[in-house]
Amino acid sequence: MNDIIFGFPSQNKVSPQDSAATLCCIESFMPQKLILASTSPYRRELLGRLGLPFEVANPQTDETPMPNETPEALSLRLAEAKARAVAEHHPEALIIGSDQVATVDGRIYGKPGNHERAVAQLHELSGKTVNFFTGLCLFNARTGEADVRGVPTLVTFRHLTEGEVENYLRREPAYNCAGSAKSEGLGIALLSSMRGDDPNALVGLPLIALCDMLRQQGVSVL
Q: Which one from 3, 18, 62, 99 is the annotated catalytic residue?
């Protein structure tokens, strides 16, 4: 079952009457249901910032790379595949798919999954610049139109000591983050620089590109 989410800025207090009026106003500008094809709590939180009503669905997509597929091509393909997978059950919706790969010299660094692999990842990435490439797709299930874009973010890690790596993972076990660095949390202390067009892309959902894609489909966030 899908979760229905209504995004309102958390700093504003909204009465039930104002909430109903706001939802009515928002829905009048929503030509189609909006669905996030992801179970990531980070992407859900990011999309919620736009203040649009949306649902969440699990895309259940095979993420195995194809032979000789580049990391960037993999990210773009999976972003679209996730959106299309959800479209099978929601043929009238606008569906957002996103995927991210972290790469150094063509090698992919995924989610470590446990402490041992996270320690190994961070030691390998120490002092290196990593391309966190985020693929984004907005799929119009009604028309079959897919808008697919890639947003790179170059992140340079500091030279990390063994103690820093252990202390970081003890305080923030980022085992479900590609590259083992949760940049929106304590992981920012692992880095020396970031270069990219959208800081949200590093967390997993490039909102600047998404807002433009939504506008192309007749959805104005403002």
A: 99
Taking Cα atoms as reference points, which of 204, 24, 206, 171 lies closest to residue 100?
A: 204
Helices (H), 61-185: 71-87, 115-125, 162-171
For residues 29 and 219, give the distance between their C-alpha atoms in angstroms, rounded to a whole number: 6
Strand, coil or helix: 155: strand
Give CA–CA dist 173/95, Å, rounded.
Answer: 31
To the nearest whole percent, how much of the chain has pLDDT over 70?
Answer: 86
What confidence tens digit (pLDDT) does each residue in 98-134 have?
999 999 988 899 889 999 999 999 999 999 999 999 9
Look up 198 and say whether it is catalytic.
no
> What sign does the dihedral 205-211-215-216 (CA atoms) show?
negative
